[in-house]
Amino acid sequence: MRSVLSAYNLGELSPTAELLASELLTNAHLHTGGPYALHIRPTESGQLRVGVWDKDPAIPSGLGAGFVHGAMPHGASEGGRGLGLVRAYADSWGASLLGEPGGGKVLWAECGWRDPARPDTRT
Protein backbone atom coordinates (compact mmCIF):
# COMPACT_ATOMS: atom_id res chain seq x y z
CA MET A 1 0.00 0.00 0.00
CA ARG A 2 2.78 2.42 0.93
CA SER A 3 4.64 1.85 -2.32
CA VAL A 4 1.55 2.37 -4.47
CA LEU A 5 0.49 5.52 -2.63
CA SER A 6 4.03 6.88 -2.67
CA ALA A 7 4.28 6.31 -6.43
CA TYR A 8 1.17 8.47 -6.89
CA ASN A 9 2.35 11.16 -4.42
CA LEU A 10 -0.33 10.14 -1.93
CA GLY A 11 2.03 8.91 0.77
CA GLU A 12 0.37 11.11 3.42
CA LEU A 13 -2.66 8.82 3.20
CA SER A 14 -0.68 5.67 4.01
CA PRO A 15 -1.61 5.35 7.71
CA THR A 16 -5.35 5.74 7.10
CA ALA A 17 -5.42 3.76 3.86
CA GLU A 18 -3.41 0.92 5.44
CA LEU A 19 -5.81 0.76 8.38
CA LEU A 20 -8.87 0.72 6.11
CA ALA A 21 -7.39 -1.94 3.83
CA SER A 22 -6.28 -4.07 6.77
CA GLU A 23 -9.68 -4.02 8.45
CA LEU A 24 -11.63 -4.69 5.25
CA LEU A 25 -9.29 -7.51 4.20
CA THR A 26 -9.40 -9.06 7.67
CA ASN A 27 -13.20 -8.95 7.58
CA ALA A 28 -13.23 -10.77 4.23
CA HIS A 29 -10.68 -13.33 5.44
CA LEU A 30 -12.51 -14.11 8.68
CA HIS A 31 -16.11 -14.02 7.48
CA THR A 32 -16.18 -15.29 3.90
CA GLY A 33 -15.20 -18.53 2.24
CA GLY A 34 -12.80 -16.71 -0.09
CA PRO A 35 -11.62 -15.58 -2.54
CA TYR A 36 -11.24 -11.85 -1.96
CA ALA A 37 -9.26 -9.01 -3.52
CA LEU A 38 -8.14 -5.48 -2.67
CA HIS A 39 -8.87 -2.58 -5.04
CA ILE A 40 -7.47 0.95 -4.64
CA ARG A 41 -8.41 3.93 -6.79
CA PRO A 42 -8.72 7.68 -6.59
CA THR A 43 -12.21 9.08 -7.20
CA GLU A 44 -13.17 12.20 -9.10
CA SER A 45 -14.38 13.77 -5.86
CA GLY A 46 -10.85 13.82 -4.45
CA GLN A 47 -11.01 10.70 -2.31
CA LEU A 48 -8.95 7.52 -2.28
CA ARG A 49 -11.31 4.53 -2.37
CA VAL A 50 -10.12 1.32 -0.75
CA GLY A 51 -12.40 -1.58 -1.61
CA VAL A 52 -12.39 -5.28 -0.86
CA TRP A 53 -14.34 -7.65 -3.09
CA ASP A 54 -15.45 -11.08 -1.97
CA LYS A 55 -17.90 -13.67 -3.30
CA ASP A 56 -20.20 -13.66 -0.26
CA PRO A 57 -23.28 -11.50 -0.98
CA ALA A 58 -24.06 -10.90 2.71
CA ILE A 59 -23.51 -7.28 3.79
CA PRO A 60 -22.11 -7.12 7.34
CA SER A 61 -24.38 -5.28 9.75
CA GLY A 62 -21.54 -2.87 10.49
CA LEU A 63 -21.78 -1.34 7.02
CA GLY A 64 -25.33 -2.15 6.00
CA ALA A 65 -28.67 -0.61 6.89
CA GLY A 66 -29.39 -0.30 10.58
CA PHE A 67 -25.86 0.07 11.96
CA VAL A 68 -25.40 2.45 14.86
CA HIS A 69 -22.79 5.10 14.07
CA GLY A 70 -19.94 4.96 16.55
CA ALA A 71 -21.12 1.71 18.16
CA MET A 72 -18.34 -0.58 19.27
CA PRO A 73 -18.61 -4.04 20.81
CA HIS A 74 -18.74 -4.27 24.58
CA GLY A 75 -16.52 -6.32 26.81
CA ALA A 76 -12.95 -7.48 26.50
CA SER A 77 -13.36 -9.20 23.12
CA GLU A 78 -10.43 -8.67 20.79
CA GLY A 79 -12.65 -9.10 17.73
CA GLY A 80 -15.57 -7.25 16.28
CA ARG A 81 -14.04 -3.78 16.14
CA GLY A 82 -12.87 -3.71 12.52
CA LEU A 83 -15.88 -2.15 10.85
CA GLY A 84 -16.20 0.31 13.74
CA LEU A 85 -12.62 1.41 12.99
CA VAL A 86 -13.49 1.74 9.30
CA ARG A 87 -16.44 3.96 10.17
CA ALA A 88 -14.30 6.02 12.57
CA TYR A 89 -11.39 6.65 10.19
CA ALA A 90 -13.03 6.78 6.76
CA ASP A 91 -14.60 9.91 5.32
CA SER A 92 -17.30 7.70 3.81
CA TRP A 93 -17.95 3.97 3.58
CA GLY A 94 -20.43 1.51 2.21
CA ALA A 95 -21.15 -1.75 0.48
CA SER A 96 -22.15 -2.57 -3.07
CA LEU A 97 -23.72 -5.82 -4.20
CA LEU A 98 -22.56 -6.97 -7.59
CA GLY A 99 -25.47 -7.72 -9.90
CA GLU A 100 -24.66 -11.05 -11.43
CA PRO A 101 -25.39 -14.27 -9.52
CA GLY A 102 -22.32 -15.22 -7.54
CA GLY A 103 -20.84 -11.76 -8.05
CA GLY A 104 -20.51 -11.09 -4.35
CA LYS A 105 -19.99 -7.64 -2.90
CA VAL A 106 -17.49 -4.86 -2.42
CA LEU A 107 -17.03 -3.24 0.98
CA TRP A 108 -15.40 0.14 0.49
CA ALA A 109 -14.11 3.11 2.44
CA GLU A 110 -12.77 6.46 1.30
CA CYS A 111 -10.21 8.80 2.78
CA GLY A 112 -9.39 12.30 1.57
CA TRP A 113 -6.61 13.51 -0.63
CA ARG A 114 -6.12 16.64 -2.63
CA ASP A 115 -4.65 16.85 -6.12
CA PRO A 116 -2.57 20.07 -6.19
CA ALA A 117 -3.52 20.52 -9.86
CA ARG A 118 -7.24 20.65 -8.98
CA PRO A 119 -9.01 23.07 -6.66
CA ASP A 120 -10.42 21.60 -3.46
CA THR A 121 -14.20 21.69 -3.91
CA ARG A 122 -15.04 19.70 -0.79
CA THR A 123 -16.96 21.56 1.90
TrEMBL record:
Top-rank lineage group of the source organism: Bacteria
GO molecular function terms here?
A: ATP binding
Task: Cite the InterPro entries for this sequence.
Answer: Anti-sigma-factor_SerPK, HATPase_C_sf
Q: Per UniProt, which keywords does this protein have?
A: ATP-binding, Nucleotide-binding
Report whether ATP-binding shows up as a keyword of the record.
yes
- Annotated protein name in UniProt: ATP-binding protein
